[in-house]
């Protein structure tokens, strides 16, 4: 299949099934049956709407919903027209209840959803050429900085409408309007029933989110010097946005290219390794210290995952004083030379972390490495200090499970029930991840938005702690317009866009995290109140979440059945 840029049709999430656009004649007839004036409707946030096709939805001019205090809710607002309509603006009002309480309009944001180039799953992992894959435009990027919208003739423009319910809001029914100004004005009613239940702030969420950060990508995209003051200033809003999604972990590189340069941008070490002329070693932690302390100020402060003693390519670079140039250590894991190379560093690093009071939250992290290599590293690490913690994202290995404090398994695996209960009792973290391997559920730019919410429910159903994805912002060459990469399906390398701009995927992931929090809170409440009927109903709903089932039923269909249980 060649490279042809056509708008992606409305999303379906069945395995490997890519939506097909109607033919041009059918599309023309659909537009001919559309009124000339601006058309407006609220619509599900679980659907990606095609740009060049009039949306096939029943027109809804009112948004009625319910929410918990502290919750962030959203919907889509669709604008489409047969003729060009310029200068469209969106102005929400305060939402008020009958007693005079209100939700200020400052808590309401409207962002146009922009179209980016995506491709298809096909074979998942593996290098690819764009010309060999079916490419299309898909609605994903959300830009809240634009409020002068142009609706081109025979185009649909989706808008992301988001409302943050302050935690101090009084329970009740709040009403207001969203005013659309175009060739004329439209007032769309909004009504929210705020329930007498409260979500904690994201920093207190039990949901353990881990999206790996890529600081060098920010420097390249914004064209500033790596690690300059300008770079750190630019990093802050990205990481604050991630902290507000419940992120718990700092991604810290302690060697150059811990993933074998599989990203578009470099991934430099935060620690400078130097072999001195007399053969001894020194380690400069100044950048590591600055970076970690800085990231903690954004709210990401529970865990420092250090990558990695087991990189994808055993090639550790360092500065050699004797030759005055970069050198590379390549001895295999488990050899005496490898052990000596790392033991010296780990002994020094342990002492440094303890002086910073960071040792207890620091983990040596490994990603999809062979078990024998991991066993050798575990043995070496514990010989330096028995209290070292380890994190692993990879397959499930019973042989090393007891040694992994933060264990994240691939979606094809499940923790044995007895092992999981023991891990919970020991305070260990047990999560899961998706990558280029899984057609569904996933977070590619062509994935169903509902799958991101589905993941939160799946996590709760398996009694796990959270979810990991390998990249928050490992951007492609032109990330604002083209999510495709030279390897893996489009969107695999990042969840948000330069700006920072959020995405449909990222916002739905937050919804899934919130649902997880609701589920856990309701399970505790029903158990405490001995409301066995409600508890049984919720637990039965959780039984619907198996990855295999997504081959026959969409994530959206499952969620439509079970979501009402959270807002009763």
TrEMBL record:
Pfam families: GH123_cat (PF13320), Glyco_hydro_123_N_2 (PF22680). Residues 42-181 form the Glycoside hydrolase 123 N-terminal domain. InterPro entries: GH123_cat, Glyco_hydro_123_N_2. Residues 212-521 form the Glycoside hydrolase 123 catalytic domain. This is DUF4091 domain-containing protein. It comes from Pedobacter jeongneungensis.
């Amino acid at each position: 299949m060649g490279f042809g840029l056509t708008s992606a049709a409305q999303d379906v999430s069945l395995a490997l099934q890519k939506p097909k656009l109607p033919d041009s004649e059918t599309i023309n007839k659909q537009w001919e049956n559309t009124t000339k004036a601006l058309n407006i409707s609220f619509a599900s946030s679980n659907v990606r709407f095609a740009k060049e096709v009039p949306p096939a939805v029943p027109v809804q001019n009112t948004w009625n919903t319910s929410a918990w205090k502290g919750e962030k809710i959203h919907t889509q607002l669709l604008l489409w027209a047969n003729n060009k309509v310029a200068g469209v603006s969106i102005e929400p009002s305060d939402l008020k209840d009958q007693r005079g309480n209100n939700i200020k309009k400052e808590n309401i944001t409207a962002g146009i959803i922009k179209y980016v180039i995506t491709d298809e799953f096909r074979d998942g992992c593996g290098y690819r050429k764009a010309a060999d894959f079916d490419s299309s435009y898909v609605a994903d990027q959300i830009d809240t900085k634009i409020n002068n919208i142009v609706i081109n003739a025979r185009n649909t423009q989706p808008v992301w409408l988001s409302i943050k319910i302050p935690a101090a809001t009084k329970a009740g029914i709040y009403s207001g309007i969203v005013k659309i100004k175009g060739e004329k004005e439209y007032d769309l009613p909004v009504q929210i029933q705020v329930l007498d239940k409260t979500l904690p702030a994201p920093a207190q969420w039990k949901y353990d989110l881990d999206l790996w950060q890529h600081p060098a990508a920010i420097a390249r995209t914004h064209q500033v010097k790596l690690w300059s003051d300008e770079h750190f200033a630019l990093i802050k809003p990205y990481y604050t946005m991630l902290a507000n999604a419940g992120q718990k972990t700092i991604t810290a590189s302690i060697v150059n290219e811990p993933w074998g340069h599989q990203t578009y941008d470099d991934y430099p070490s935060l620690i400078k390794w130097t072999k001195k002329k007399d053969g001894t070693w020194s380690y400069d932690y100044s950048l590591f210290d600055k970076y970690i302390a800085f990231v903690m100020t954004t709210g990401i402060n529970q865990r420092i995952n250090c990558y990695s003693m087991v990189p994808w390519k055993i090639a550790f670079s360092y500065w050699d004083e004797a030759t005055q140039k970069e050198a590379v250590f390549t001895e295999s894991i488990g050899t005496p030379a490898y052990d000596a190379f790392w033991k010296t560093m780990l002994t020094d690093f342990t002492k440094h972390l303890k002086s910073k009071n960071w040792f207890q939250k620091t983990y040596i992290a490994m990603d999809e490495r062979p078990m024998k290599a991991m066993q050798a590293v575990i043995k070496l690490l514990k010989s330096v200090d028995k209290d070292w913690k380890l994190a692993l994202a990879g397959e499930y290995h019973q042989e090393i499970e007891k040694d992994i404090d933060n264990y994240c398994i691939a979606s094809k695996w499940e923790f044995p029930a007895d092992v999981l209960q023991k891990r919970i009792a020991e305070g260990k973290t047990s999560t899961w991840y998706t990558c280029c391997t899984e057609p569904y559920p996933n977070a590619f730019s062509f994935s169903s938005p509902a799958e991101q919410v589905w993941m939160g429910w799946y996590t709760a159903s398996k009694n796990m702690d959270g979810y990991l994805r390998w990249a928050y912002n490992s951007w492609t060459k032109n990330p604002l317009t083209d999510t495709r990469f030279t390897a893996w399906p489009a969107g695999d390398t990042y969840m948000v866009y330069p700006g920072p701009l959020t995405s449909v995927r990222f916002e739905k992931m937050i919804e899934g995290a919130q649902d997880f929090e609701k589920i856990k809170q309701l399970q505790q409440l029903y158990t405490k109140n001995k409301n066995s009927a409600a508890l049984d109903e919720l637990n039965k709903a959780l039984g619907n979440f198996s990855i295999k089932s997504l081959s026959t039923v969409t994530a959206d269909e499952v969620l439509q059945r079970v979501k009402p249980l959270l807002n009763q």
